[in-house]
Specification:
Blueprint: E1 5-10, H1 16-27, E2 30-32, H2 35-44, H3 48-60, H4 86-103, E3 106-109, H5 113-116, E4 123-129, H6 132-141, H7 150-169, E5 181-184, H8 185-188, H9 190-205
Parallel strand pairs: 1-3, 1-4, 2-3, 4-5
Helix pairs in contact: 1-9, 2-4
């Protein structure tokens, strides 16, 4: 069968990243998260530090809650003034995401990958969520945040993810219409979330991808 790509958007503390990693391991395929920034840096020749600074800069901007001009998929060449602009740094990450989708089955965490690949037929778009109480509990148990105000940190992180998504896509991060599957990890548990995604892939594509890691 052709490559199957699973994109995962997730509330902080819902376990979406863990579910994605478990799914990738089960299927024998790669799971990409922040590695995409490193790969985009290597592909473009732009320092990885600039990619990270762009996220921080846009995060602090009062314009961040507004929509950015719609992503068109083209990178800006080095000779252009906007080569290291926030828009082009996102475009290079999107370029890597598209290349991955075209060459291998994989899991991609975050980075608005569901939107970048919205016109691809081989993509399963998953959104993982859970109650505020569950996310707080999981964050504490997994030591994902060691500060005192866990609830505030989770809310701030989710707001950043929502604003990032809106800024680059013009869409709402929590809109179920953006996804093929919306999974409540609190109700299902991580293992059953993995099984739910696999079951969906089987129904839609007829079989599971056979991944072989190098």
């Amino acid at each position: 069968m052709e490559n199957v790509v699973i994109t995962i958007a997730r509330h902080f503390g819902s376990g979406g990243k863990t579910i994605g990693e478990m799914l990738a391991k089960d299927l024998g395929i790669h799971c990409y998260n922040r590695e995409i920034i490193r790969m985009a840096s290597e592909d473009s020749g732009i320092s990885e530090i600039l990619f990270n600074r762009a996220d921080e800069r846009v995060k602090r901007s009062f314009l961040f809650g507004k929509s950015h001009p719609e992503y068109k998929g083209k990178v800006i060449p080095p000779e252009s003034d906007g080569f290291v602009s926030d828009k082009n740094l996102f475009n290079y990450q999107a370029k890597i995401i598209r290349e991955l989708a075209e060459k291998e089955s994989c899991v991609i965490i975050g980075r608005a990958a569901d939107y970048v690949l919205k016109d691809y037929d081989n993509v399963v778009r998953v959104y993982v969520h859970a109650s505020k109480e569950y996310c707080i509990q999981q964050t504490i148990e997994r030591r994902a945040y060691v500060g005192k105000d866990v609830e505030r940190f989770i809310a701030k992180t989710d707001k950043y993810r929502s604003d990032y998504y809106r800024y680059y896509t013009g869409r709402e991060w929590t809109d179920a219409r953006n996804y093929d599957l919306c999974l409540n990890s609190e109700c299902l548990g991580f293992e059953k979330c993995v099984e739910a995604v696999k079951a969906y892939i089987k129904v839609r594509f007829g079989s599971l991808p056979e991944g072989k890691k190098e």
